[in-house]
Amino acid sequence: IHMLKLSFNTSTSSFPVGFLYRPIWFCLQNPLSFSFPGSPQLSEKYGPLYTLQLGPRRIVVLCGYKAIKEALVDLGNKFRDRGQQASFDWIFQGHGVAFSNGEKPIHLRRFSITTLRNFGVGKRSIEERILEEAHFLLEALRGTKGAPFDPTYFLSRSVSNVISSIAFGSRFDYEDQEFLSLLTAVNEIFRFSSSAQGQLLDIFFEIVQRIPGSQQMAFKRFCELKEFVAKKAKAHQETLDPNSPRDFIDCFLVKMQQEENNPDSFFSMEELVATTLNIFFGGTETVSTTLRYGFLMLLKYPEVEEKIHKEIDHVIGVNRTPSMEDRLQMPYTEAVIHEMQRFGDILPLALPRRVTQDVQLRGYTIPKGTEVFPMLGTAMRDPKHFARPAEFDPQHFLDEKEQFKRNEAFIPFSTGKRYCFGEHLARAELFLFLTSILQHFCFNSAMLPEDIDLSPMLVGFGTIPQAYEFSVIPR
């Protein structure tokens, strides 16, 4: 294969039209150049709805908040199935809450949301879990003694331990080698799926999966994660007390027992492993990457960090831990967190969709089974909703009285029938981890703010910031 062809169908009125070519070797050597399905140039030329032929795959791309809302919210039932995400489909094989289709994800999703709520998500008890983990994180940061460090695993260990306590019933020690190996696997998979090679795998899966390359490392890492969860599930099964479930896995096992005589049940060991892995992976990487990118933004704009310090001192002080109730009195901090998510755009298209039946959208007929890319990043950089979409500016979420204001185009967790149900947990983690750290520390970088580069290192399935080091200085 020496040429990647992306063509827009011009022979039928069912799809918008256009045409584009790019060589594969150029994309491999210039990863960012490959992240173009929802690029402003294409949407400006062809509008908010257009078709791409990605190798053998025909994709409809949605750009801008209005088009995404019309599809995922107004016509949500017709856009609820998942499209192909080869890096993940290879391991999940249609199982689990995130990558399955039909009736299965409806039942698994309902169960997962209820179970997470029962373990405190959206309640005061989840705050206690997060703040407990924040205590361990603060101790780890103090241990750096002002020396520069890469924040990647400091953050991923803490964030992952919150979801681990829910999924597996306990947290991990920060030096646990198995835990560190799991986090390395999650990090490497996220990086691969965001690389040019990962995107080529998605487009030409039948070919690329069979040849040597970094995709083989990703497959190996996925197997390691799946084997770990399967081992945990088996251990839970041997010690299960149906009257006293300890965590998400126990609750799933109880549900399996309740439905063991139902031939149509969607609850099996295969679904348990896949769904738990979905939750563990999603609950680890996205929040930790958002914080890591957000800290880089604060290093770039120290005046923003200073304003957060002042708000923390005024509302929380130094003698008590933060709480979610503090958000109501901290509009600037809340605005900064939202802007970190908007500007960082960690999951530019979330997960692909597939229409469940023929659907009419903006005068076009999208045939049943067509894959759809709702480019969430184009909504969060929609100039109709954000005054300076290409700039990091917390004022996007503040009104004329400097009070926090919501924006309907802010959809980092997607929207509609299959929005991310970990949203409440993620919001709590972002606020409590950020305020806990800035309550005790100031950030310092050897680089001058004007020399800090906020452009991402990779953009694909996810957005990954540049690697950097910084130091934390006790306040």
From TrEMBL:
GO MF annotation terms: arachidonate epoxygenase activity; heme binding; iron ion binding; oxidoreductase activity, acting on paired donors, with incorporation or reduction of molecular oxygen, reduced flavin or flavoprotein as one donor, and incorporation of one atom of oxygen
Binding site for heme: C420
GO cellular component terms given for this protein: endoplasmic reticulum membrane
Keyword Membrane appears in the UniProt entry: yes
Requisite cofactors: heme
InterPro entries in UniProt: Cyt_P450 (IPR001128), Cyt_P450_CS (IPR017972), Cyt_P450_E_grp-I (IPR002401), Cyt_P450_E_grp-I_CYP2A-like (IPR008067), Cyt_P450_sf (IPR036396), Cytochrome_P450_fam2 (IPR050182)
UniProt name for this protein: Cytochrome P450
Source organism of this protein record: Laticauda laticaudata
